[in-house]
């Protein structure tokens, strides 16, 4: 295979996450660690069959001829940096290049946080026929890959020669400084298990008392200052190694080092390692965009468990304070307008599998995005997945509209089992201890029936209904114009209360206003 074949086989480099915290030692006698989660790389082996063993990856270090007798499995630790852009390999001009770019390349190539330095490109030959693809690269040190560095010029005009090519040496592990922070185990550089340096040794932080204020200090230290940090517990990104340096961390939010926060010796295991998701600029390959909404596990696109995107990850919403106004914001954001949105609580569409991002959501109903509603700081909650919130949005294909009510099973139009339409389907109301004459009055008023002396009846007095029990714990003040304007909850699929039709609510409508 010749160089022209290699040029045709190389891949464009998409922005792909790189772990920012790996700290593997440099050892020229060992093979390189797995690169499967990193920027597509193309790393040459030092062999006389150099072209045939080079893999089409995305970055490579060119190799000096005198080292071609190295074992095939060993990767070079120094060389001229080459990058693949638009199916073509080329070099990088050293204008504006500094140690931050060096360390980014070293980390991408070797999956470790190591010290790198610039070296003379004339030591490395064999690139005269390659174009110079990048110039004026100014990395800030927090990018996920080289193409994310600002002020870079791709395939643009430049004033460089190959005498100015970037060449580097990834020379060894560096001793960390007290208070230095790194993140490990995350999919993106802006998230992971927190690792902190103390006396030259990396260790972790116990999650006792760990909250968004503490997480915010970590993110500020790392340069992620736009937005809210999410505090994670229970070794969410995996357990760390080494000592646990801090426990019971209490920050005010203004500290410039986590060591300036109050803390105490620990009584923890690594299964309690603290983590964080920082508000980083959106990665191009992220799963979603901040504030995106989707509905999961419903019978159709108009219903389901509410899932929201933060920092490229999907998470759920806790049902504390979740009501129809909040549901309306979700439905409007998704374009399902009109009708009567209905809130669902108690994981009515099943439990989510991701993080719980939002709690105590309090919308006024006019917000264009759920993240603009009032509520706890993202990630700050006291909920479990059995409290995941959901919605029924207006369904234009349904046989009934959200909030419609009807009476069934009675001998006259003035009495019967109460049935309500939610999510395009009819279901019943649980006649629990909160079902009383005030709720009966609202039902009769909504139907245009006499309601002054309406009577609430429970225990499926007009026979058990069919379908789902859709509503429980109704709390009306008696003046509402529609039943779904009252406060209510949805039965949990994980409890037996109100799950059968033996307690279906009914009404008898009497009297005129």
Automatic annotation (TrEMBL):
What InterPro entries has UniProt attached to this entry? SRCR (IPR001190), SRCR-like_dom_sf (IPR036772)
Q: Which Pfam families does the protein's record reference?
A: SRCR
Keyword Transmembrane helix on entry: no
Instruction: Recite the UniProt keywords alphabetically.
Output: Disulfide bond, Glycoprotein, Receptor, Repeat, Signal
Disulfide bonds listed in the record: 139-149, 251-261, 363-373, 476-486
One of the record's GO cellular component terms: membrane
Q: Where is the SRCR domain?
A: 59-171, 181-279, 293-394, 405-510
Identification of the protein by name:
Deleted in malignant brain tumors 1 protein
- What species was this sequence derived from? Geodia barretti (Barrett's horny sponge)
